[in-house]
Amino acid sequence: MTKNTMTFKGVLLENEVMSRHTSWRVGGAADRFYRPVDAIDLAHYLKTLSSDEPIFWFGLGSNLLVKDGGIRGTVICTSGVLNKIEQIDDTHIYVEAGVASPKLAKFSARLGLTGAEFLSGIPGTLGGALKMNAGAVGGETWDIVESVETIDSHGELHKRTAEEFLASYRYVENKEKLKQPEWFVSAVIKLNKGNKEDSLQTIKNYLNRRGATQPTQQPNAGSVFRNPADDYAARLIETCGLKGFCIGGACVSEKHANFIINTGTATAKDIEMLIETVHKKVQQQHEINLIREVQIIGESNE
User: Fold this and answer.
1) Interhelix angle for 196-213 vs 101-110, to 10°?
2) Which one, of 152, 11, 271, lies nearest residue 263 by Cα?
3) What is the C-alpha separation between 286 and 274, in angstroms, rounded?
4) What pLDDT was estimated at residue 2?
5) Distance from C-alpha of 284 to C-alpha of 91, rounded to nearest angstrom
6) Quick one: pLDDT at residue 177?
7) CATH of 11-77, one of 3.40.190.10, 1.20.81.30, 3.30.70.100, 3.30.43.10
8) 129/125 Cα distance (integer angstroms)
9) Where in the chain is the domain with CATH 3.30.465.10?
10) What CATH fold (topology level) applies to the domain 85-213?
11) Could you give the residue numbers annotated as active site?
12) Which residue intervals of the chain bear CATH 3.30.43.10?
């Protein structure tokens, strides 16, 4: 709940259906949904919230499953609003959390900078990439981060260096035990000088490969499970005979077994049950405990 609604300028919606904002196209309504004007406006809005208000951050709604009962609390949407991106000097770029990862990849390449090409294959925003150390084709987000700006639940902004964080495979945490959660608002990316044409061609190759091997034309949330050490989740799922297996309108992709697609009628419950079934089958057949990469949030309808 908000304490005061007079100090912010963004758009506040109530009972906003989250299926409009998730890449799986499922999810119930959020109590409150706020799209800020900029980082300062976001800070002002956060200051109006009660200290016990649950806060959830959304970018493009990828890598995320919102349950059918929706979200009790406030959703902060950064996509399309925290979208500033600019060159600082010969090798550094300032980019806000709402910028889509592929946009950052192309922006960097056009400047003749190399090192961010892998981001072209990540269908989310920089904020999400920072949170989970998103990666593809051998590159990871925190390999190129020099510093970040975060914001806490009180609306206070903090500047932090990359050295303050521990980043590993699909995992990031602040090395200090913070008293309250912080979310990423922006980052300074450090890249290397390269060749514009080579980088753009690399991005094109990545995108062509992604289109050929992933169900990019169907609603999905990217890779459902992390790859276990020295193996691939997709291989394990496929060897269990689960390609094409469906529960309701949710199906394991025939194109890539580590993707679950919404064929058009799926509910969040269908997807969640399918995730659980795949996990159980792989554990039974291979004795491997796949770790979910997709986050599941919200309330069930049950």
Assistant:
1) 150
2) 271
3) 18
4) 53
5) 49
6) 79
7) 3.30.43.10
8) 6
9) 85-213
10) 3.30.465
11) 170, 223, 293
12) 11-77
- Distance between CA atoms of residues 271 and 253, nearest Å: 12
The residues of the chain scoring below 70 in pLDDT are 1-6, 302
The Cβ-side half-sphere exposure at 139, using a 13 Å CA radius, reads 21
Please give the structure tokens belonging to residue 194.
Answer: 């390269």
Listed residue (81, 88, 161, 87) closest to 127, CA to CA: 81
Residue 69, φ and ψ in degrees, nearest 5:
-80, -5
Instruction: Write down the pLDDT at residue 7.
Output: 76
What's at 294, amino acid-wise?
V
How many helices (H) and strands (E) would you count in the chain? Answer: 6, 20
Length of the chain: 302
10 Å CB burial of residue 175 (0-12, 13-18, 19+) is: exposed
Provide the Cα torsion 240, 243, 248, 249; round to 10°.
150
Range 242-246 contact pairs with CB under 8 angstroms and sequence separation of 24 or more = 242/278, 242/281, 245/274, 245/277, 245/278, 246/274
Contact predicate 299/28, CB 8 Å: yes
pTM: 0.90
pLDDT at 164: 95
Return the CATH architecture of domain 233-297: Alpha-Beta Complex (3.90)
| Secondary structure E strands in the chain | 11-17, 29-35, 55-58, 64-66, 71-77, 85-87, 92-96, 113-114, 135-136, 139-140, 145-152, 157-161, 165-168, 171-174, 182-190, 192-193, 246-247, 250-252, 260-262, 295-297
Token look-up 């950064």 returns 78
The residues with which 173 forms a beta bridge, in sequence order, are 166
